[in-house]
């Protein structure tokens, strides 16, 4: 009889614990369900601050000034932001930035095409705000009278389109001088979006300086050294031959670009007249 009672008590004990376990499990499941967030970007369910599928930050579907202010401050002034890291890297070692981006380390850097477009927008904004005319300023720096030229004006007014041609030409010419390097043409184009963007930013520095003294505009041609350095640092091999080939590729690519832009502008001018 005592054994029978002990058996019944054991059954009741197990049943009670099973009940409590089911109760706790259901509540914990309910709490997890309540704390789940639905990503408004991809529809995935997640519990953290960021979606584990697409990386989107949790939000309530509204835009607030504090969020925009936070994003602006992060991208403009945070030293860890992709924009500043890209700028600093392209200033100190452009080849490393390009090689790391191509090899897959892309979250740390700004997208090449975005960097290029941002730099172009800054340059065009400065020229519009200041009324800067690079041809006129060059003539003044050389002590020559300025005579408006419709072809040069067309080149200047469409520089934002021609700069894409600059990227394509430089990527093609650099691969001609470094044929054994394991860099595809699309990879070279991506890298030269970086180089062209930084080249434009460096040229933008001379716009306000040219109003102090027109002679400063001539220093922008020294920025071609940055293009050469970008080519030399991007490829591997003997340093001496990299410098020789990089210099030749930079100068030749730049000359091809200038003559191509002039030829296209002249052709368009002849057609439209």
How would you describe what is shown here?
There is one protein chain. Helix content is 71%, strand content 1%. With 273 residues, the protein is mainly alpha-helical. Strands 1-2 form a two-stranded antiparallel sheet. A hairpin with a 6-residue loop joins strand 1 (37-38) and strand 2 (45-46). Helix 4 (94-102) runs antiparallel to helix 9 (185-204). The model is unreliable at 1-8, 17-25 and 27-34 (pLDDT under 50).
SSE blueprint:
Elements: H1 2-35, E1 37-38, E2 45-46, H2 65-77, H3 82-92, H4 94-102, H5 112-130, H6 134-141, H7 150-157, H8 159-177, H9 185-204, H10 206-212, H11 224-234, H12 239-272
Antiparallel strand pairs: 1-2
Portion of residues in beta strands equals: under 5%
Based on secondary structure, the structural category is: mainly alpha
What's the count of strands?
2
What Rg is obtained from the alpha carbons, in whole angstroms? Answer: 30 Å
Distance between the termini: 116 Å
Unreliable residue runs: 1-8, 17-25, 27-34
Quaternary: single chain
Count of alpha/pi helices: 12
Approximate helicity band: over 70%
Rounded mean pLDDT score: 81
Largest sheet: 2 strands, antiparallel
Shape label? globular
SSE order: HEEHHHHHHHHHHH
Taking strands numbered 1, 2, ... along the chain, how are they ordered across the largest sheet? 1-2
Summary of the model, kept short:
Helix content is 71%, strand content 1%.
